[in-house]
Amino acid sequence: MTDIKFAWSALDGDPGLLPRVTTVAREGALQARLPVRELARACVGACALAAAELGARRAGLAEVPEVRVDDGAVATAFHSERHVRVDGRPPVSFAPLSRFWRTADGWVRTHANYPHHRARLLGALGLPEDASPSDVADRLAERSALEAEETVYAAGGLAVALRTPAEWAAHPQSAALSERPLVERRRLDAARARALPPVDASPLLPAAGLRVLDLTRVLAGPVATRTLALLGADVLRVDAPWLPELPDQHADTGFGKRSARLDLTTDHAAFEELLAAADVVVTGYRPGALDRFGLSPEALAERRPGLVVAQVSAWGAYGPWGERRGFDSLVQVATGIAAVEGSAGEPGALPAQALDHGTGYLLAAAVLRALTERSYDGHGRLVRLALARTAAWLTDGAPVHTVSGAPYEAAAPWLAERDSALGRLRYALPPVSFTGAPVDWARPPVPWGTDASRWT
Q1: Which residues are catalytic?
Q2: For residue 429, what are the contacts with CB-CB under 8 A and spacing of at least 6?
Q3: Chain segment 345-383, per-residue pLDDT in tens
């Protein structure tokens, strides 16, 4: 069931707290054949409840604050990357080569928003850098969808063949996912972490004083760390100097954070200094990609006992696709979602990048629950989520609805504007709401990579 009860249980939350959550329904919000609105409610509601629980613990409150989940706020936040404006300029959502393509026997979807992914896609197809979309279309039309998928993947690019739900269910990666919980959680060590100081009850900032190292990229990981920043954490996003974030994505997900550049191959001392004072490390690269830098959960916990490590990936850290790159749009295609949401023989998509956003709020919730548990026993923890596992939750036994009626599009109440070093920003307000919660981020995003690699 795509409801908060299931999500809260996956986080090992106290079921007695669920009555603290109320929902404001908005007809037509996140319309889809699959229960996207219900998934979005559950993820945001579980995140807000985990925040309220930790806040009550740190503020010494007699009871956990009440949580309010408004479909309008949730739907607006799940479209945050579409709503963001910098000096009135609309965002660039997908590059010309990030789309569906017909193949000799079906469909394939590619992702080429980043320059290096675009170059690998063209290289895999034997095309020059200045190739046009029609050139790509001609090459892919000559191949089967599975051949295109494997050829592009072998070149380090991103392409996924369209599968039906039944075809995905027969895939070994689907089988590997079915053996895992929605939220993977375990202790990392037996050491005791530093005790967190008390916080005020108004505004209630459950993550105040926490230092979060943000090693994530589009989109689920940055949504999680943006949420922790809202709740008072000192979030430092760290990127490799040669991998700048897409400007619109950075503007959307950089609220409340600082942004630094650090070369993990050479700046060992700077990273170790950051790690020595960190409470949480969040990673969003493909599984194992950071291990060579000593950033596996076990290696991190050995150097920083009591650390909470959070990981998010596209396909999970196991199975034959465990080391593959991926994005929300590609996971929808592989897992049968695009087939379910399509029509007239063409694939479709969810009304939002709901796997990214939903997983992001669940990841933040898992971190908050881990911190609450750590406040009792002092132990570090690992929490791990995957977009494809969230997709399995969305599709598992879910009835397919007929979409009817007008979609809910009244976003204005949940949009705000402010000045920043990037320009005048319009953006979606946070949907995480509980009694005493902050209603906006303390600071706007800063230009990418402009902060020093140190804690404030």
Answers
A1: 356
A2: 73, 76, 77, 414, 415, 416, 439, 440
A3: 899 999 999 999 999 999 999 999 999 999 999 999 999
